[in-house]
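To start, an entry.
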Amino acid sequence: MAGKLNFSLVSPEREVFNGLVDQVDAPGVEGDFGVLPAHAPFMTALREGPVTVFTGTAKRTFTVRGGFADVTPDGLTILAEAATEVAAA
C-alpha cells in the first residue's frame, strides 16, 4: 500500500485524534465501511459504534456516538457528537 491517510477525529470538546494512518474502519448508518489512502470521496452519517484506526501493526479503537464522516482527496475527517478512546485490554 502506497502512502498514508490523513485522519482527524473531532468531538465538540476537542480533537481526539489527528495523524497519518494506514486504514480507518467506521460505523456508517448504511453499514460499516473502511477507508484507505486515495479512497474515492464520499460523505455519510455515522451511527454509534467503534472507529478502528490501523497504523502498521498498531490498532487504536474509539467509540463514537453519531456525527458525520467526510472523505476528501485530503483524507478522512470524522465529526462526532461524542468520541472517546477505548482503553487497551
Notes: The chain is about 0% helix and 70% strand. The CA atoms of residues 82 and 88 lie 19 Å apart. The first strand starts at residue 5 and ends at 10. Strands lie at 5-10, 15-21, 23-28, 31-35, 42-45, 49-55, 58-72, 75-85.
